[in-house]
Design goal:
- By secondary structure, this protein is α+β, with helices and mostly antiparallel strands.
- It has one domain (3-148): NADH Oxidase, CATH 3.40.109.
- Helix content is 34%, strand content 18%.
- The protein is built from five helices and four strands.
- The protein has a four-stranded antiparallel β-sheet with strand order 1-2-4-3, with helices on both faces.
- Helix 3 runs antiparallel to helix 5.
- The N and C termini lie far apart (36 Å).
- The structure holds flavin mononucleotide.
Length: 169
């Protein structure tokens, strides 16, 4: 798929079929994540790949907006190492860049995903950290639920001229 076509075709899909995802596709998705830019070239982002149905359902139960994990074939949790990057904003920016790279790779492979946001201000993040067995210095920053789409959505076109400012606000 052409890059620009892929960017517009990506939509949040929350219903998936039972078709399993090939191991090589998971590798391709992760490889896209590792190619994301990183503040100060520190690369503090790591990944937890979940395929076990019990673990996916358990994780879903800890997240207010994570129901899509119940049907997902795979989840990739994007976690940040606060020892490697102590600037919280940059850690999150790195995680977002990796997450979006994966979402685009997923679309290119004919798969679908939804980005599940994680932030420490969510009460239940403590439970997510326990569920993933994370040490204190590793924070879960986002999760992608992934599967073959059981529903389709149109490519998005949200261009808004009024949101584009020239030279100054
Ligand atoms: C930072 C972030 C957090 C999000 N968190 C969730 C979430 O917890 N659960 C969910 O179902 N969708 C979540 N989404 C997906 C948005 O709801 C979705 O991107 C938005 O509705 C636009 O639809 P589209 O992705 O199909 O273009 C999140 C997206 C972003 C960027």
């Amino acid at each position: 798929m052409e890059t620009l076509q892929c960017i517009h075709a990506r939509r949040s899909i929350r219903r998936y079929t039972n078709e399993p995802i090939k191991e090589e596709d998971i590798e391709t998705i992760l490889s896209a994540a590792f190619s994301a830019p990183s503040a100060h070239n520190l690369h503090p982002i790591e990944f937890i790949v979940l395929k076990d149905r019990n673990n996916l359902v358990q994780l879903a139960s800890k997240l207010t907006y994570g129901r899509s994990l119940n049907e997902a074939q795979v989840a990739i949790c994007v976690v940040g190492d606060t020892n490697r990057q102590d600037n919280w904003e940059f850690l999150n920016h790195d995680a977002a860049a990796a997450t979006q790279n994966m979402a685009l790779a997923i679309t290119d492979l004919g798969l679908s995903s939804v980005w599940i946001g994680c932030t420490p201000s969510y009460e239940n993040m403590k439970d997510v950290h326990i569920e993933l067995n994370l040490p204190d210095h590793i924070k879960c920053l986002s999760i992608l639920a992934i599967g073959y789409p059981a529903v389709t959505k149109e490519a998005n076109d949200r261009f808004e001229h009024l949101k584009i400012h020239k030279e100054k606000w």
